[in-house]
Amino acid sequence: MISSKRIVFDVGAHKGEDSKYYLTRGYKVVAFECNPSNIEFLKKRFEKEIKSNDLVLETRALISGGSVDKKLKFFVDEISVWGTLNEDWVRRNEDWSRRNERLGSNPKSILVDTLDPKEIYNLYGIPYFIKIDIEGCDMDIVQSLKYLNYENRPKYLSLESSRTSWNALMKEFDLLKKLGYLNFQAIPQSKNAKKITKWKDAKGKIISYHHEKHSSGPFGVDLSYSWKDLKEIKRIYKFIFTRYFLFGDDGIFAPRKIKTRILRGIFRRILSLFGLSPNWFDTHAKKD
């Protein structure tokens, strides 16, 4: 059992881009990852931390109804961040199909062991923060919080917000509200690779941490934006969804529709300059 005072769950650890930050920040980490190639990478990268029990690596896939007797298809891709258990997501997610076609990549299925998310709290303790980024299955983890008393739920959590359905996004917020999360931030993922987080260690020394590409970036007190209430965050997401509608992958003025590479690049820079670029956003939530 890991101390509940300093535990972070990194659900969808990928190659440890976020786990490294959490460890550097002084937290104990449980990293959840079921992609075999990523698992091997994590074992090598965090060999020292695994031996010291500062990082625990859980390799079963988290999904509602998972168990020791249940194996499911996991879809792995040459673009490792696209791994998912959600077969419907693979078939219907047009972003996946379009990128695969463009990059020459093909998803392949393997069988993986599974674990029901509501079991992870008994196994590893109550986390201070949960980062959730498992393509197409994020809400299974959020739903599992219903099995914890309000006092035992994490103070902070983050999940990759729905980009394709306003109704799905509203359902996310409805559930978060019922769970007692009433403070929110919408954080664009593309800016995390350039993000620098600073804090003081126990000796008063200032630590500067450069977040890695593909990371979810800072959380909690390290976030530089102000927290919004439910009404304010929904207004922010209305603007975000307007950008998706106009400039997203299937938007009316999607940059990908411009055939000339140079013009496409210029258009994207203009969108970025005026803050209109479509982006993937993480929703960060804090208990009231």
Overview of this structure, please?
This protein is α/β, with parallel strands linked by helices and 288 residues long. It has a single domain (4-287), classed as 3-Layer(aba) Sandwich (Rossmann fold), CATH 3.40.50. 33% of the residues lie in helices and 22% in strands. Strands 3-2-1-7-8-12-9 form a 7-stranded mixed beta sheet, with helices on both faces. A 3-stranded mixed beta sheet has the order 4-6-5, with no helix packed on it. It is globular and about 50 Å long.
Q: Could you name the key traits of this structure?
A:
288 residues, alpha/beta, Rossmann fold, 3-stranded mixed beta sheet, 10 helices, 12 strands, globular, disordered N terminus
